[in-house]
Amino acid sequence: MSVILSFYAAYSTLILFAGVAALLALSIYVTLMAGQLSLGNAALAAIGGYAAAILTRNYHTPLWVALLAGSGLAMLVAVVIGVPSLRLRGVYLAIATLAFGEVVRVVALNLKITGGALGLVGIPALVTFWHVYGILLAAAFFFYRLERSKVGRAFAAIRQDETAAQAMGIRITYYKVLAFALAGLISGLAGGLSVHFTYIINPAQASFSEAVNILTYAIFGGTASFFGPIIGGMVLTILPESLRFLREYRLLMNGAILVLVTIYLPNGVLSPRLWRWRRARL
Amino acid sequence: MLACEQVSRAFGGLAAVENVSFTVAEGEIFGLIGPNGAGKTTLFNIMTGFLPPTSGRVRFQGETIGHRSADRVATMGIARTFQNIRLFREMSALENVVVGEHARTRGTLLAAVLGTSAHRAEEARVRARAAALLELVGLGGRATETAGSLPYGDQRRLEIARALAAEPRLLLLDEPAAGMNPAETQAMMDLITRLRREAGLTILLIEHDMKLVMGVCDRIAVLNFGRKIAQGTPQEVRTDPAVVEAYLGGRTTRRPAPRRSEAGATVLAIDEVDAGYGPAEVLHQVSLQVREGQIVTLIGANGAGKTTLLRTVSGLVRPHRGRIRLHGKSIGGARPDWIVSRGVAHVPEGRQVLARMTVLDNLRAGAYARRDREVERDLAAMLERFPTLGTRRGQSAGTLSGGEQQMVAIARGLMSRPRLLMLDEPSLGLAPILVERIFDIIHDLNARGVPILLVEQNAHLALETADQAYVLEAGRVVMEGPADRLLGDASVRRAYLG
Amino acid sequence: MVVFLQQLINGISLGSVYALFALGFTLIFGVLEIINLAHAAILAVGALFAYTLFTRLNANFLEALLGASIGTGLLGIAIDRIAFRPLRVRQAGRLSSLITSIGIALILVNLAQILWGSEPLSYPPSAVPIRFISGGGVTVSLLQIIVLATTVLLLVGLRLLLTRTKLGLAIRAVAENPATASLLGMPFDRVVLFTFFLSSALGGVAGVLVGMLLQGSVSPFMGTTYGLKGLAAIILGGMGDITGAVLGGLVMGIGEIMIVQYLNSSYRDGVAFGLLFLVLVVRPTGLLGQQQGREA
User: Fold this and answer.
1) Which residues of B300-326 are buried (b: 16+ CB within 10 A; e: fewer)?
2) What pLDDT, in 10s, does the model give residues B353-403?
3) Out of A145, A167, A282, whose CB is closest to B144?
4) Do C266 and A89 touch (CB under 8 A)?
């Protein structure tokens, strides 16, 4: 038991990061379920993080309130950018969300309340293992149920053929916005959680490269089911740390993963096993 | 049940559908037929909310469909299938049908997440119903198979099952028998009549397969160039002179071209070719020859595979079986650019000019495969031969009229100094007087020694022009012979109109 | 007024670099309908190639430019073979190509880091002319003139290539309608190859010019901002349209300088992206662009 505790003490931040990465990967997964690629989730997480941090740091609100506020704000923003972006197809939507992400970063860089380029420090340490993994578990459960529901099927239908989905009576607009809202909610939660064990936040967390990291988690793990992004997020957070000597090659590894998985393993590393599970489900 | 009242739809200046009116009574099986580009699918799209009409209205059970979006229309009780099958390929057959029940599935996301008993009961009900629908269309044993992996005929049936899932009163089928062989078509016919009987559905279908249309429909409306030209029972429509003319083309006043008595060496030999796109086999054991100095025409109803055959010759489609030889050398399955360099020029359906490039550039593009130095000289000669193009040489090809674009396409094909010229539906969308001019050009070309393979929907015109004719039906050659002999043959009419 | 003119000149200078960069972007989009986000990394690699040519081989401006552009051109061909061709064969969607291009960008940047280090570098003074011409209160540097001249020459050259040569004809035809182009005997693969070479070479040139214009700007990471701004430029001017790319680039360059001058400079990047977002939402085809997609 004490081995576990000391292990955890040594690696707690990493383990918490892994959980947050899994959540972030899930946030990009939910929009991918509906056929949309959003590259703005890092920015949404940053919004959640900043909001939560400001509340706990400046106003000493309880953690749950801050998390709720942060994720609520992120969800709202997601809907606000989601609605006008609805008409955009695939690649254009990705770029629009990318642009949005950059705007958020620049705004964070300049506002006083967000602390400018240095960001905010001294955020209270309120988050423990159970917060992060409890929420992750709840999220996983949520997705498990989502995939087996009318909403999950609607997402999949929209992803595979929007025209046919419409002919089935599925309201495309509503579901796409719903996907965005969920993405905002989850990213905001992830952001709010992470600032409370790293104690800082700065604008770089809303940057394009962060968004790319999140994308890599999802692609690597595979997007056939919610399990993929979770695995992707956790593995890609823990692995580079344990392979310290590859630190210099981190970007290269990420890049290689994106290229190789996209070309050769379109369903991510877990594809064959997931396929078996899917057939069994029916 | 359904009433189209003076429905019109224009795209830009082009009227795709013009003042079409008809009604479909409850419990009827109603057919909508017409040559290529007549506006049938556009009409379907208007009826299902994918496109608003420019004028007129469609009423379903008394209510106007108007500008409702497609998903709203679906909840009104109209369901449809699509011309190019639109299944959710990654889902299983059962899941596809379950998605089809979306509008009738109760429950909220919250209930789903909490896993309430109401939710579970609803899921069970929905799945059971989907399974029953699969049984109804004969796919009961394939519920767990991935939709994308099903054989072509089963995919069409799955699409129907999915459409039925929404509990519609009116079912719209867009070319349900496309790409099917005679046995599958018969099975589809049985299914359609069974649906009307057992499910009490009203059915409106678009189809090119006359056997199905004539065999299954109570009444038929015929569209041509966006207008309704006839309506009635199958027998009435089949013998209506306006319909015959729309499909086979009118007789012109021209005197038939003098026949060349001896044909030369074989230029193009197609032997027992099978070809198709993905899961759909379109051509079955097609054999055809074009000799020096000949105009050979390939006629047949829409969807018969004429364009596919041309595309197989020019290399855009790979044949699965059989051989294609040009001047004795095999070209089947080779790359398009290599085939062009061997002297095959394909003037595609719909002209396909390079719209944003000038007329001059379009012609130059035609000469791309040539390595000699006489291109510019040929260019000048071509512009003289087609004076209309000469005056418009610097204009963007996309701004020209239909007839002028057809000239550009033909001239472009000629720029490659082809040893075989293939023309796909040169008369499509052109007014009769322009069609005469184009066919004058075709005659002239042939007189100068270019062998021509002509695909035409306008059978009379094609038969008057060509030396040799082949009739294609459902991907098979069903008749062949000298064109003037086929001209008077009633079986040609049967091949078109059933 | 004088300040305005001066900044206009600076803006045109910067804008012409953006224009060159955007050109490369839009060429590939026109022909293949994919957005190649690795283009930004290619800009950086081009600048770094030139750095090595300047410092190790004592090349002059022209030699460095030529060497860098040929180097990046070949790199572009390699990237197509490795990353994009397999996706074309599989007929994967455009999103896949976008994702792969991001991956390639990461790989290139990391490799550049290994080869040249992460610190920003400057071209040696011998390579960069520092003469100035003043008049009427306005100063133009010889460098700016060179940049502008290079851009204009390349644009003219590109235009000639596209309108007067057989290859240019093929590129335009394939961009317009690949199926018809095939029917006319145009070799799709070779056209794609050449387009990648051309596009990447232009990207490399843009990198060299940036390196010359801005001291201390040459690093493996220099491409990121240009990448996103170049994207904004082509979306603004219209995807797939060459004139649009040039216009978009100029607008971005001038706009950026003016915003720095007259508004709060730290918001400068944000304005570019806000504009990009708005353009996408309101008029995705940009000012001059072609209609979206050849969807059946």
Assistant:
1) bbbbbbbbbbbbbbbbbbebeebebbb
2) 888 889 999 999 988 888 888 888 888 888 888 888 888 888 888 888 878
3) A282
4) no
Q: Of B340, B355, B356, which is closest to C184 when you measure between CB atoms?
A: B340
CB pairs under 8 A between B and C: 62
Nearest CB partner across the interface for A90, out of C95, C100, C104: C95
pTM of the predicted model, to two decimals?
0.84
Collect all residues of chain B within an 8 Å Cβ-Cβ radius of residue A156.
88, 90-91, 99
Interface test with A, best of B45, B69, B80, B86 (most A CBs within 10 A): B86
- Which residues, numbered 102 to 131 in chain A, qualify as contacts with chain C under a Cβ-Cβ cut-off of 8 Å? 102-103, 105-107, 109-110
pLDDT digit string, tens, across residues C240-277: 778 888 888 888 888 878 877 777 666 767 777 877 78
Residues 188-247, chain B: which have Cβ within 8 Å of C? none
ipTM over 0.90: no
**Across the interface, do B99 and A154 touch by the CB < 8 Å criterion?**
yes
Cβ pair C23, C202 in contact under 8 A:
yes
Q: Which residue has the tokens 């049908």?
A: B97
